[in-house]
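Hi there, hope your week has been kind to you so far. Please have a think about how the structure follows from the sequence. I've dropped the whole record in just underneath, so have a look:

_____
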Amino acid sequence: MTNHQPDEAPETPAFVPCTPSQHASINKIKPERLLALDDGPQGKTALLEFPEGWQRTIALPTQADAWHPMFDDLTKAERDRLCAHVAPPVVRRPDGTRYRKGPLSFITLELNRECKWNGARLFDVPAEDYGAGSITGYRCAGELLSALQRGYGPHIDIRGILDEVTAVQNEPFGRPSRRGAAVAFMEVVKESIVFMAKHGNHSEFLGRRVADSEKYHAYAIEQKAKEKAAFVVRMQAAREAKAAKPEHQPASH
């Protein structure tokens, strides 16, 4: 007699929550309330409540994911909780100073002894030979572009990054430095500008910027003229008031 073993149930695939960008690509509805935060087998996640009461768990694999525009309708306190949940840990150096990694891998946030912000290093890459540094620079530029593509631009100091990269390009050549990384990074920036010039609607964009700047410049000139005229009127009134005031007569004996 043959024994028949019961068929084994198929293995249920592990649930993998979507990231903010994945959610936004298929669903434009934004959450209204943060219900819970977790740091388990799926990494850092947030349980959120959406309109009409349905809920979804969203994965937060990077610090920048907490800044996604899909969270704009949450309260400031809830957004602050999200950011604190995904913030990298504070690291203490042997000399007592502290730091934590920033929104990109090459950004380091310096902290004081109370763990408050004390400055930032916006192109914190290692000193390397030129060739190895070039690889690092291309990777950093790609990381920045990917973050901007996902909508994290408002939370990244792009101008500060470019200022620091520009300064690093002046480091000595011929010995390990950050120069190779900086040159490669700026090469990507240059190519990005060329790509935008060829494929972007920059004429309309810059036309609006020029028009807005001209309008503000005219407004600023007008306001300055009004303030100057008002100052002249006040000074004239003060002089007239002083002239009209009777002089103090000495007391007679």
Helices lie at 20-26, 76-86, 130-149, 158-168, 179-199, 202-244.
